[in-house]
Amino acid sequence: MTCINVVFWIILNFGIAFLMRLFPRSWFNAELDLYKEHYFEKKLYKKLNVSKWKDKLPEAGGIVGFSKKSLSKRLDISYVDRFIDESCIAEVGHILIGIVGYTSLLFTFLLPNSMNYIYIFIIFATIDFIIQMMFVVIQRYNRPRLINLRKSLTRKKAYKYYH
Fold first, then answer.
1. Residue 142 in contact with residue 150, Cβ under 8 Å?
2. Which end is more exposed in the chain, N or C (fewer Cβ atoms within 10 Å of the end residue's Cβ)?
3. How far apart are CA 123 and CA 114, in angstroms?
4. Which residues are within 8 A (CB) of 22 and not within 5 positions of it... i.e. 6 or more apart?
5. Tens of pLDDT along 88-113?
6. Model-level pTM?
7. Does the keyword Acyltransferase feature in the UniProt annotation (predicted)?
8. pLDDT tens column, 137-147
9. Are residues 139 and 95 in contact, defined by beta-carbon separation less than 8 angstroms?
10. Which of 79, 90, 116 is nearest to 1 (CA)?
11. Radius of gyration of the CA atoms of the chain, in A
12. Burial of 77 (0-12, 13-18, 19+ CB in 10 A)
């Protein structure tokens, strides 16, 4: 059962990461209300000390073609736009992983005395949900900064064009 559970979590995490690539890019536009920063978020992220721990969590975006571990040395508007899009994709992906992770509870019905194990599966699914929400917070924390960076790069490009 442990092996099945481990395989389930691996397939879930990587499967959703790749599945996200099949959806239309228009679903992951930072201008959509879903991705916009809410009035309370800055204060919340400050209380959570996101800036202190966000870089300590692993980043696996490189597996699906775009690492978000750090900014590239090649900082141009198209790169920052892609980074913003990828943050939207990652946000939805982590939310889905967190929610779908609770389907692991179905494995308890494969076990004799399933009710003896259900609490363990609930604990694992809840821990995974919390971890996934930490990744969502990182995406939401970084995105406004990336949008501001894009605005700055756009202004610099316009300035160079006219001067």
1. no
2. C
3. 15
4. none
5. 999 999 999 999 999 988 878 877 87
6. 0.86
7. yes
8. 999 999 999 99
9. no
10. 116
11. 19
12. middle
Nearest partner of 124 among 7, 1, 9, 4, judged by Cα: 9
Assigned token pair, 88 = 């939207």
pLDDT at 119: 87
User: Distance between CA atoms of 78 and 23, rounded to whole angstroms?
Assistant: 20
- pLDDT per position as a tens digit, 21-74: 999 999 999 999 999 999 999 999 999 999 999 988 887 766 666 666 667 677
Number of other residues whose CB lies within 10 A of the CB of residue 138: 22
Do 12 and 97 form a contact (C-beta atoms < 8 A)?
yes
pLDDT in tens, 122-141: 999 999 999 999 999 999 99
Angstrom distance (rounded) from CA 75 to CA 56: 23
Instruction: For residues 81 and 64, give the distance between their C-alpha atoms in angstroms, rounded to a whole number.
Output: 17
**Hunting for tokens 């756009």 — which residue is that?**
154
Domain residue ranges in the chain: 1-23+72-163
For residue 130, give Cα distances in angstroms to 122, 137, 158: 12, 10, 42
118 and 105 Cβ atoms separated by less than 8 Å: yes
